Amino acid sequence: KDIDIIIHLAGIVGKESSEKSEFIIYSGPYKHREYHFNFPLILTPLHIRLVSHFLGDSCLERSSCRWSQKSIVGGNIMIALINKLLGITIKKGSKDAYGIPIILGDIVSGSLSLKREDLKTHLLVDKVNLLPKEYRVQMLAGFIVDEGHVTRSLIKIVNTDLSLLRSFKNLILSLGYSCSEIKISNQKKDEKILIKGNLAKMNHPLYQLLIYADGMFNFNKDLHFLIRNYGEVAGLWQKQNDLIYFSSKVNIEKLQKIR
Q1: 259 Cβ neighbours under 8 A, 6+ residues apart
Q2: Cβ(159)–Cβ(170) under 8 Å?
């Protein structure tokens, strides 16, 4: 496997982390691509940030994970994130899709003792929940970019996967953010609802999880610290300005008195 090759090389080359190594890894039966890695290979919060998007608007394929994003801002930052991790520049594909090289997913799954297909399940969140705070914040940020909505008094996360939301609730609570119980949405059978700007008919129950105002405020503070360390790729991308604005309106002292 590609990931086995990388880990093996990382162990025997023994280069300083500031030194770059270049080698070819095949991403398909008839094509190859040159990836740039720093050795020794270390799993960073940005690796977790990238695979957090596997859980949202994405589809796992043989040589890539096809991630869909209509926002030009979000798409450009995804390109910058991949460049930061791999040293290559991908291009936007058709139908607002971006091909994330699957080798990045294999690095994470191999490091966390997961299978590649587990990167689309709650098992990934459960593993990340055992990691330091920076990793957990990045996991949450990526999922909110894809599946969340930032409003004046809360962040709403909506998904059809109940197990996934349960794992995210545990992660949110581990970060000290206040949140709601998971509830099923009140949509009627065959009713069309607005999802990411489009009307869609839901064939499965839709669940929602809310991060309350004080949790949103603290999330913004934690994210600000990571943006200072890693740049805008660690932020909330096209939703960052909304997070900053609405968090600035939160009266923490008033909320503490109420609770």
Answers
A1: none
A2: no
Beta-carbon contacts of residue 153 (< 8 Å; ≥ 6 apart): 212, 213, 246, 250
Classify 135 as helix, strand or coil: helix
Residue 221: name the closest of 239, 254, 244, 246 by CA. Answer: 244
Confidence band (pLDDT; 50, 70, 90) for 192?
low
Q: Which residues of 153-188 are buried (b: 16+ CB within 10 A; e: fewer)?
A: ebbebbbebeebbbbbbebbeebebbbbebeeeeee
What lies within 8 Å, CB to CB, of 203 at 6+ separation is none
Say what the pLDDT of residue 46 is: 97
**Under 8 Å between Cβ of 31 and 51:** no
Q: Tell me the one-letter amino acid at 153.
A: S
Is the C-alpha dihedral spanning 235, 239, 241, 243 positive or negative?
Answer: negative
d(CA 140, CA 146): 10
**pTM of the predicted model as reported, rounded to 2 decimal places:** 0.84
Q: How far apart are CA 103 and CA 109, in angstroms?
A: 10
Question: Residue 45: which of 89, 101, 73, 85 has the closest Cα?
Answer: 85
Q: 3-class DSSP state for residue 20? A: strand
Reported as a pLDDT band with limits 50, 70 and 90, residue 188 is low
Residues contacting 121, CB < 8 A, separation 6+: 163, 164
- Beta strands (DSSP E) in the chain are 20-26, 32-38, 58-60, 64-68, 97-101, 148-150, 154-159, 183-184, 192-195, 198-201, 207-212
Rounded CA-CA distance 74/216 in Å is: 20
